[in-house]
Specification:
Blueprint: H1 2-23, E1 32-34, E2 39-43, E3 69-76, E4 79-86, H2 90-100, E5 105-112, E6 115-122, E7 125-133, E8 146-154
Antiparallel strand pairs: 1-2, 2-3, 3-4, 4-8, 5-6, 6-7, 7-8
Length: 156
């Protein structure tokens, strides 16, 4: 129950941060860190530099796509959510994660021209990786045609 609660709290925070950036409310170019309790949220609107991955993020198991701009990173206990943008196509980023996750236990998967979504378990985590076409109208984000979201929760 606690893990499910942590997952939903994390998701609501990430959605809120993405919404703030999308509507232009967070136009500063500095990295901002918010720490209410055990939750750490880092985000930036500066496309020249991304935020650092949270301490403990399992980058060896769930690597961030090469040259992706990490806009936000949320850590809650041992759960993580990343929102990234890439200049590469949905197909290229999706193919990368298809290779990374090929030996995992896949629960559900969607592969389409403008979306790659996969859910499963790997390395002690239940994961969701979603790669989609960037629909943002913000001029700074138009150079990134692909959005990547990675959500990791410790497997029960």
């Amino acid at each position: 129950m606690k893990k499910r609660f942590a997952f939903w709290i994390t998701m609501f925070m990430v959605i809120g941060l993405v919404f703030l950036c999308a509507v232009g409310c967070a136009k500063n170019t500095d990295t901002v860190t918010v720490k209410p309790g055990e939750t750490t949220i880092k985000y930036t609107t500066d496309v020249r530099k991304g935020v650092e991955l949270p301490a403990g993020y399992p980058n060896d198991i769930f690597p961030v796509y090469k040259d992706a701009w990490v806009m936000s990173a949320v850590a809650l206990d041992k759960s993580y959510t990343l929102v990234c943008y890439s200049k590469d196509s949905v197909q290229d980023v999706g193919a990368f994660y298809e290779e990374v996750l090929k030996n995992s236990q896949i629960i559900a998967q969607t592969v389409e021209a403008d979306e790659y979504t996969v859910m499963g378990t790997k390395g002690g985590y239940t994961y969701t990786v979603c790669v989609t076409k960037n629909m943002e109208q913000d001029k700074e984000l138009k150079e990134f045609p692909t959005v990547l979201a990675i959500n990791l929760v410790p497997a029960p």
